[in-house]
Every structure is written in structure tokens, then in C-alpha cells.
Specification:
With 140 residues, the chain is of the alpha+beta class. Helix content is 17%, strand content 30%. It contains three helices and nine strands; from the N terminus they run ββββαββββααβ.
Length: 140
């Protein structure tokens, strides 16, 4: 596995004894067995992972700040100091480190850009967005 691409090998058994081989698709079937090489644009570390509430709770400081929003976990450690609303009405993202911040997020965000930022993060699990948000995965 390299950092840019994950290669998975899937093996299947079939009831028939046919022999088929195709180089262009990356599949080869011999007798009743087929092996498929699957290329994925994500490396193993970039795949979204399920996050337990206990794991979320461990990331509970300003220097290690994970929050959940609508059942999805984000690392906002490098984002929260630059957040435009940080400190308004004594509200700080880091106060919600290790916890669910859905209510706070929805209370202060009623336009598309904040939601689009989270969607961008979800499109590239494990990698920081331009806004420094990292999508970790769904909350268990």
C-alpha cells in the first residue's frame, strides 16, 4: 500500500469451472475462482473510521480538539483558533472538545458555507481541508 492509493484484492469462488482471463479489467478467473484487484483513491489511513464516544471524549483540549456534529466527528484543533466567531458571547469551540457540538453549530450557522466546509472535509477523510478541518468518521 502506498500513500496515494490503496490496493485491495478480493477473492471469490464460483460454482462453475469456466476459465476467463482479462488483463484490461484487472480480473482473472481460473476454474471456479476469481481474483479482482481494486484500486481506491484513498490510502488506508485516509479511510473514515467509526469513532466511539470514549475515543471522542479523549480529544478534549484546545490542543487536541475533536467535536461531533450531527453524528460525524471532526478534528478542529487547527481550525478553532482561526474561527471567525471564536470567543463571541464567551462561546469557544474548544469548550466542546471531546463532545457533541451539534446544537452550538446549528445555533450560530444558518448559511451554506459552514455546512459546505464540513462536507468538503467528509470528501477527504483524514486529510485537512484548506480551512484546517479534518473529518475523522461517523460517531458510533
Amino acid at each position: 500500500v502506498n500513500a496515494e492509493e490503496c490496493h485491495c484484492i478480493l477473492d471469490f469462488d464460483f460454482p462453475s469451472e469456466a476459465v476467463v482471463s482479462t488483463q484490461s479489467t484487472g480480473t482473472k478467473r481460473t476454474n471456479n475462482h476469481q481474483t479482482i484487484l481494486v484500486h481506491s483513491p484513498f490510502s488506508a489511513i485516509q479511510m473514515a473510521q467509526k469513532v466511539s464516544k470514549a475515543t471522542l471524549a479523549k480529544h478534549n483540549t484546545a490542543a487536541d480538539c475533536w467535536i461531533s456534529i450531527d453524528g460525524k466527528v471532526y478534528d478542529v484543533t487547527k481550525f478553532h483558533p482561526d474561527h471567525p466567531g471564536e470567543g463571541i458571547n464567551q462561546q469557544y469551540i474548544a469548550h466542546y472538545a471531546g463532545k457533541d457540538a451539534s446544537e452550538l453549530f446549528e445555533k450560530f450557522h444558518n448559511s451554506n458555507p459552514p455546512f459546505e466546509m464540513l462536507e468538503t472535509a467528509q470528501d477527504q477523510p483524514g486529510k485537512p481541508t484548506d480551512d484546517k478541518i479534518i473529518y475523522i468518521g461517523p460517531l458510533e
